[in-house]
From TrEMBL:
Domain THD: 89-235
Pfam family name, one: TNF
Protein name: THD domain-containing protein
GO MF annotation: an example: cytokine activity
Family of this protein: Belongs to the tumor necrosis factor family.
A biological process term (GO) from this entry: immune response
Primary location recorded for the protein, binned into one broad class: membrane
Transmembrane feature ranges: 40-62
Native organism: Alosa alosa
GO annotations of cellular component type: extracellular space; membrane
Length: 235
């Protein structure tokens, strides 16, 4: 600010953002002589010009700023698009409690940490919406007090093969399991039943509308969501 004695001689000083990409603002030159009306007039005209220039500068910056923002937004959204690719079909189903079967076909639930994305599930059958190579996996825990032959299979029904209704085996695990006799005084107790597990996992080319399911023959499936599961994901 000009000091008191100089008011009217020099225009008041305005602080302009030096970061703004404007050229130096022309400072109007005022005649030292002449009536105070002239000086006032010049001062007012100067201020008006200064105002117009500042406004022009601000508008320019505003527009430039908007351009940069939208560019930045574009870059960010592109990055997000790269980081978050389109989610592929993926499923994890858990064994229902108590375990349920229908004609040896295991039935599943989506409870707990189970999930289902872009695949259909109904009555034990997981159906593919999008053709591709899928990794299929299933684990079951079996317990019995007798020696048992357990057959754990992942089956497929495809319109592309045979009559389109007959299930085909994709993966199979067969094992003969005998509970180990317990030693000593525990031998006569019911706890002689013990547990065995079967895991299947592999990749297959599946077509749209193909269904896959898990079949278990022989042995009793053991209760437990963590112990029994079935899932698939597109590779
Ligand atoms: C899948 O099944 C649906 C319903 O049955 C049918 O409309 C569709 O055409 C089938 N898609 C293919 C590729 O077979």
């Amino acid at each position: 600010m000009a000091d008191g004695g100089m008011i009217g001689v020099y225009p008041q000083v305005f602080v302009v953002d030096t970061q703004a990409p404007c050229g130096p603002l022309p400072v109007p030159v005022y005649p030292r002589r002449g009536g105070w009306r002239h000086r006032l007039l010049f001062a007012l005209v100067g201020l008006a010009l200064l105002g117009v220039l500042i406004e022009a500068c601000c508008i320019y910056n505003l527009h430039r700023g908007h351009g940069e923002t939208s560019l930045a937004e574009k870059i960010i959204s592109n990055e997000i698009a790269e980081i978050k690719p389109e989610r592929k079909p993926a499923v994890l189903l858990k064994g229902s409690q108590p375990p349920e079967t229908k004609d040896n076909v295991l039935l599943w639930t989506q409870e707990g940490d189970g999930f289902r994305h872009q695949m259909d599930y109904k009555d034990g059958l997981l159906t593919v919406r999008k053709e591709g190579y899928y990794f299929l996996y299933s684990k079951v825990a079996i317990s019995d007090i007798h020696c048992i032959l357990v057959k754990h299979t992942i089956m497929r029904i495809s319109e592309r093969y045979g009559d389109g209704k007959t299930p085909m085996e994709l993966m199979q695990s067969v094992r003969y399991h005998c509970p180990k006799p317990l030693k000593g005084d525990r031998q006569d107790k019911q706890e002689t039943q013990d547990v065995t597990s079967s895991y299947l996992g592999g990749a297959f080319h599946l077509f749209t509308n193909d269904s896959v399911f898990v079949k278990l023959e022989g042995g009793q499936i053991r209760t437990g969501q963590k112990e029994n599961f079935f899932g698939a994901f597109l590779l």
